[in-house]
Automatic annotation (TrEMBL):
Species: Nibrella saemangeumensis
PANTHER family, per the entry: PTHR12435
UniProt cross-references to InterPro entries, sorted A to Z: P-loop_ATP/GTP-bd_All4644_prd, P-loop_NTPase
Protein name per its UniProtKB record: Kinase
């Protein structure tokens, strides 16, 4: 299999960007230590025992930022597993990275709508053919076109499940 490598600085703040079901948490599990990944769903669960409890979103992001800051202070590579689809959702994380002179990396999981719909059909916890998905994908397209100008030093955009399968993350010291 042809593997392409995705280079990241050994100390970096990596934002995974993608709609719900794009494969962010799967990607994070595969390429990073569990302790390197801060997930908004996990932060919600730490507060309410329920990762889908939207009422805890504000507190969850406060916790996520706090944890990220503590790690960056110690120059630990940190991965943010949240949708990060809209520019204003990314801004405070970009500010945090800059505050700690930490290179910012964006990994966009831009999966075709067909793939997302097929995955959703196999899930039992949500209804399939969700029209929300179409809007999320449009948001992704609208709001992630200028990532380099937002302050990311490196931007990777993966556009198919095959491409994601073949990726190897390489840390540069
Ligand atoms: P997230 O919402 O972006 O965190 O997406 P998840 O990582 O939870 O993945 C959503 C669904 O897609 C899960 O059922 C995964 O098993 C599946 N999935 C994620 N990545 C891949 C992949 O690369 N290949 C395949 N076949 N399925 C995947
Ligand atoms: Mg997830």
């Amino acid at each position: 299999m042809n593997q392409s490598s995705l280079q990241v600085p050994a100390f970096s703040l990596i934002l995974l960007i993608g709609v719900s079901g794009a494969g962010k948490s799967t990607f994070a599990r595969r390429h990073f230590l569990p302790t390197e990944v801060i997930s908004s769903d996990h932060c919600r669960a730490l507060i309410t025992d329920n990762e889908n409890d939207q009422s805890a979103t504000g507190d969850a992001f406060e916790l996520l930022h706090w944890l990220a800051a503590k790690r960056l202070q110690r120059r630990r590579l940190t991965v943010i597993d949240a949708t990060n689809v809209q520019a204003d959702a990314r801004q405070s994380l970009i500010d945090l990275g800059q505050q700690f002179n930490c290179p910012l990396v964006a990994i966009v999981l831009d999966m075709p709508e067909q793939v997302l719909n097929d995955r959703r059909k196999t899930r039992t916890d949500r209804s399939f053919a969700d029209p929300v998905l179409h809007r999320q994908r449009r948001d992704l397209w609208l709001w992630t076109r200028y990532l380099e100008y937002e302050g990311f030093s490196t931007v990777y955009r993966l556009k198919s499940a095959d491409e994601v399968d073949q990726i190897q993350v390489v840390r540069q010291s």
